[in-house]
Write a structure and sequence with these properties.
2 domains, alpha/beta
Length: 319
Amino acid sequence: MDLTVCICTRDRPRYVRDCLDGLRRQTVARDRFTICLVDSASAPAAEAELVSVAAEHGAKLIRLDHPGVSLARNAGAWAARTQFIAYIDDDAIPAADWVETILEAIAQPGRRPALIGGRILPKWEAPLPPWWPSSLKGVLSIIEHEGRGEYRTSSIPKGLEPYGANMVVHVLSLLAAGGFGGAVGRYGNSLLSDEDVQLAWTLQDAGYSVRYDSRITVHHQIQAPRMEPGWLLSRLYWQGASTVLTRRLLHEPATVWRELPRRLLVASLFAPTALIPRRSTVLLAARWRLAYATGFIRATFGWHVTAAAKARAKVPVAA
């Protein structure tokens, strides 16, 4: 085996089946890669279906008793028996040459990558509403840029970040960096994010090659419920909090305090818009900025990387 493909899921066997069907259609032989399906504490009915679909596709199934995407991804890394692990979200469908392109990318001459982020194209379950801000496609885990290069250099657009929906990582480098942070990443009903960004910048700051390669492509199924104003506001609230937590994990607390006055100003200016019903699109530009600022402010003053959060990344794995 040359590559471990890791899918982390919770209560979404239908999407997992689509993802596995995409892996079945790969242009490389099946013996070139192994599949690890991590069930992040699904309900009994979904768990039973995941057992069936994993067996059908020859995937190794790991069952966790505690939810959390960072915990699940770390479990996949510990189970890997290959140098590299490719993470793909359960609602993403890989391009037919996805594995082949990954193998080419990690085998190319020169400096070995510790992490490669790929392109994520949308597969809409419902049309993108006309009111959706064009600058916020990224919160739907969409990356459409074509090209290659090291992140945070002139070869890649400013602000482009890797997403765990389509990410390849050198396993030993991942584990040496402490894995995906247990204080960030989706957990329960929260929309905390940036566990992937935190890992990438930790590796890059340590001197490793962390690059983008648009040839590595997946198609992300964008669920219809996400096309609602209320979801967008929740996502931006949690993104504000995620930004603070990630900067602290990256030992950059000063940047949080420098940005805080601007977020306080935004919150004070746009506070009256909080009275508008969440389902409304009225003054949405002001409201999503308020949501982000509120999450940022609350995390700055009230949330820290607690011992309990760190412990979530150390829960024993039940395979």
